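Quick one:
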Amino acid sequence: MSSSSNGQSQDSPPAAGRLRSIPRSAVLRFALLIALLAVAFALFRWTPLNELLTKDKMVAVLMELRSAWWAPLALLGLYLVLSPTGLPVSPLIFAGGVVFGVKLGWLYNFLGTMLGASASFLLARALGYELVSHVVPDALLQRAEKILEKHGFWAIVRVRFLPIPFAVINYGAALAGVRFPPFLAASAIGLIPSMLIYTYFGHALFNAATADRQTLIRNLAGVLLLVLVLTFLVPLRKLWKKRRYKNG
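Output:
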């Protein structure tokens, strides 16, 4: 028994040793990340900035700026600032569709969400990943890396269609060890159609009073069907391939 315990101690350090070996810089950076998120949340939750995060206010602000050449840049800047805070970006998506229309609104929403996703990912990677890599056991990290290599890319694509908080996906991917280029590519594949769908939703709902009701219902039903198809396309394809392999 003593030899096995000695072998175990040689293969992997005890948890207490791992915790003691955590660099102070990793702890300080993680604390800075938590502090930034807490301050941002407090500012947008308990200050007049909270009013800006409503769909109506966002639409009103962008409507006033619409004639300015830099109005799209203002929308992109809001994505860049708000996304890493963990606050919802749905008012920005809604406002983009209403103010700029479906085509331009989709383009600006896609670029904005890509900027926000990149900023969130890089912030979490720079400030939080080192601490996670020291706290989580090596075996669990290696297992997670294998799962991410096998399923991570298309998992990120699929979750872009689900009502999961935007920052959770970005921070989760960064802290789980997903590399930035695959994260960026998977996010682009998922956000191109999803932003088109959500932008159309915002535009259609805002103009529901003046639009043909039957046409609106038909289009929204088509959009919902497209969301379901895109969300479950990859897992259904894998299930079909497994059944085909077993039958063959």
